[in-house]
Amino acid sequence: MLEIYKSQESGHLEMLTLKTLEKGAWINIIDPTPYELKEVSAVTNVEPDFLRSALDDEERSHIDVEDESIMILTNVPVVYDEESYDTLPLSIILTKNYIITVCLEETPVISSFNERTARLFHTYKKTQFLFEILYRSATFYLRYLRQINKISEEIEDQLRVSMHNNDILRLMELRKGLTYFNAALRSNDAVFDKILRLRNNRTLEGVLDIYEEDEDLLEDVIIENKQAREMVEMYSQILSQMADIFSSIISNNQNMVMKFLAAITIIIAVPTVIASFFGMNVPVPMEGNAYGFLIVMIIALVASFIAAYIFYKNRMF
After folding, report:
1. What pTM did the predictor assign?
2. CA-to-CA distance for 178 and 172, rounded, in angstroms?
3. Which of 54, 100, 288, 312 could be stapled to 93 by a disulfide with Cβ–Cβ 3.0 to 4.6 Å?
4. pLDDT digits over 165-186, tens only?
5. DSSP labels, 57-86
6. Per-residue confidence (pLDDT) for residue 142, from 0 to 100
7. Do 73 and 58 meet the contact criterion of CB atoms below 8 Å apart?
8. Residues of the chain where predicted confidence (pLDDT) is lower than 70
9. What stretches of 162-211 show up as alpha helix (H) in DSSP?
10. Which helix or strand (DSSP H or E) is residue 9 part of?
């Protein structure tokens, strides 16, 4: 999918095509075909490798600089099936005339820049628009982290009542999402540091022009990203401790069940031993007594009650 927009002074987005492309336009590419990449590369003079970088879902965040263009590849958060969190590479390419975004899927970060929010950004202010995309990405990280925390609390409440495999699997899915977030946020930090180093690079004049208000926005991006990293580390520790605690509870419950079954087995074995003793094919006490069977049963029951009382006093069940 290929979409081209340009902010107007009136505050709305004008939709363009490659044939009507104007300076200051935003070219948004989602899961492109080879033909679309070739067309965009020919019109914008952007290296094809720049356009293809974000199409590898394992690509880590980094910055590449070529003649009159710079590519900032960052990882943005996505959520699948409500509780499955992941990250996707998003390539943001700045040239002297255009800003280009490339991603494998449509993400909430990019889709939040639309006609309804058109007054909040300007495509022709390329550097500012870049930082707004990065800032929006950081805010989505924070939003998803709060969702993860809320879901983990719900799982904890359910596990306190009864433990099911589904809850344990949900907990594992959240831990996996936090791992992805942690790796992405760390690599994004390195990208922001490099942007700070590039702001005085004269070879990028006209491509990456950072003004005073842009520096403030970049600082906000770095602060939000740092906060997201801290939240990831904190929630990861909480989930890890929660998993360890419930693992200990499951092990303890298993031990209690084994103790209970062992005690019941011994209690049942007592009358069995007594009955076996009086059932031997040799002369035994009370073999001629009319009440012998009843006496043996009473002895077995009393012995069983004594064994049960001993186990109860020792908290075997």
Report:
1. 0.79
2. 10
3. 100
4. 777 788 888 888 889 999 999 8
5. TTPPPEEEEETTEEEEEEEEEEEETTTEEE
6. 92
7. no
8. 163, 200-206, 281-282, 287, 316-317
9. 165-198
10. none
From the CB of residue 17, how many other CB atoms can be counted at a distance below 10 Å? 9
Separation CA 13–CA 66 (nearest Å): 29
Distances in Å between the alpha carbon of 143 and those of 84, 184, 207?
14, 15, 31
**To the nearest 10°, the Cα dihedral for 106, 112, 116, 117?**
-140
Dmax (CA) of the chain: 116
In this structure, which long-range contacts are made by residues 168-173, counting pairs with CB atoms below 8 Å and at least 24 apart in sequence? 168/246, 170/83, 171/239, 171/242, 171/243, 172/243, 173/83, 173/84
CA–CA separation, 132 vs 12, rounded Å? 17
End-to-end CA distance of the chain: 66
What distance lies between CA 150 and its chain's CA centroid? 13
**Which residue spans within the chain are E strands per DSSP?**
2-7, 13-16, 25-30, 62-66, 69-80, 84-95, 98-103
Q: State both tokens at 34.
A: 């080879």
Q: Which two tokens stand for residue 108?
A: 């909430």
